[in-house]
Amino acid sequence: MSLSGDRQVRFAHVIIDGIWGDDLADFSDDDEALRAAKRAISKFVKELEEIDEKVRQKVTSLKRQVVEGSPEWDTMYKKYYEEEVKKYG
After folding, report:
1. What is the pLDDT of residues 53-73, one digit of tens each?
2. Would you tell me how many other CB atoms lie within 10 Å of the CB of residue 7?
3. In the chain, is it the N or the C terminus that has fewer CB atoms within a 10 Å radius of its CB?
4. From CA 89, how far away is CA 85, in angstroms rounded?
């Protein structure tokens, strides 16, 4: 999953506005709350990219060559992806 920096900033604003709008929390420093949301989103995207890379390496390292985009590749990718996501929690 790849999200541009602009998209990440937009999501951070949506999250902070939603939390504030639903009266779920009050922020003593709105700018710090926004920065925290941006950091969390950035970390999340980075973890997804790391998972994707690990999964792709696993699929390509199989003895039999699995062609990317084939149904078998999709099945193996999904299986390994779910395994890696469980490791991250």
Report:
1. 999 999 999 888 888 999 999
2. 12
3. C
4. 6
How many Å separate Cα 59 from the centre of its chain? 20
Structure token pair of residue 78: 């999904």
C-alpha–C-alpha distance, residues 85 and 60, integer Å? 19
23: left (phi over 0), alpha (psi -120 to 50) or beta: left
What are the structural domain ranges in the chain? 5-88
- Three-class SS of residue 66? coil
pLDDT digits (tens, 9 = 90+) for 3-51: 888 999 999 999 999 998 888 888 888 899 999 999 999 999 999 999 9
Question: What is the gyration radius of the CA atoms in the chain, in angstroms?
Answer: 18
Is residue 45 within 8 A of residue 8, CB to CB? The reply is: yes
